[in-house]
Amino acid sequence: MTGPVGVGFVGVGVISDTYLENLGSYPDVRVVILGDLDVDRAKAQAEKHGVAEWGTTDDVLAHPDVDVVVNLTIPAVHVEISSRAVAAGKHVWTEKPLGLDRESTAELLRQADAAGVRIGSAPDTLLGPGFQTAKRAIQSGVIGEPMFASTAFQTVGPDLWHPSPAFLFAQGAGPLLDMGPYYFSGLVSLFGSVDRVAAVGRKKLEERTIQAGPNAGTVFPVEVPTTMQVITAFEAGQQAASLLSFDSALERHGVFEVHGTEGSIVLPDPNQFEGRIAYVKARKSISDGNWGEQEWIEIEQEGTLTGRGLGLLDMVRAIAEDRPHVATGELGYHVLDVMLSAQESAASGEFVKVASTVAPVPTVPVDFDPFVATL
User: Which superkingdom (predicted)?
Assistant: First the structure.
């Protein structure tokens, strides 16, 4: 690949703005066309972000200057659109989750391998300087050997603010498949493949009401558990406990802690590209029952800050450099397998063995600079 690499979008909903803003600032890529079921919406986004062309999905897939398709469609059609892009000879960057079932998602990866194209899968927050600085600190031994992790995402629910939230409560979403990819991708990046999963789940309401936007007052069904608690056991021996909820009056976003033999570290919100990184060392003694305050050691974030689209950029550079990219389709598939296993465990009440594995996730070099032309 030589740059700038041509990019086309399929789907220009809410999340497309941040992708377009960021990709427009990377000299190694160039957005050439936007496609959507609503062509007028594609046109409006193209005019807003200075993209020369717009049209339908077919227009994007047939465009001769498109090397990579960004798939921002709803989860239910992620595999379908990605498969069509692969058949058109395009590399794919897809929003999470990679797919909704193991069979079609695994087939997508086989198709891409046979076609000689790559699949990249969100989230790419794990490439951000916040998570990467923390990962390097853990690898350097600041907390000794990692033993277990705790993560949490709690909110009252996206129906409070999203103008069209029904898809977030449908099959293929809920807090597990909507927010879980951020947390489980981070855990797998740190600890490697998950061996087995146990989970419990429930939902607060059978129906919810849209609270914001032009559809406020509209009632829609809740199809999936809206609170999930998941235990993951990793092949390397670590464990993690993860809470994911759309039912919590207490708002807690981005809790991500790793506890080791010599200390504990707080990582940034895995849905963000930056954040606080700090650790404490294990106490040596307690005098007269006086616990006192623990001393936090702050870690300065290293690397260039940017946002969504970073994973796509890493993928196109990796193609040119003939190296693995970080947020691979295989990582996306393993995380999907973990989440589907959690669903199955919640239904059966038993641990579920995770069949898939994934290669160790590469660490991003400190000097990775999205704003420098390299292709």
Answer: Bacteria
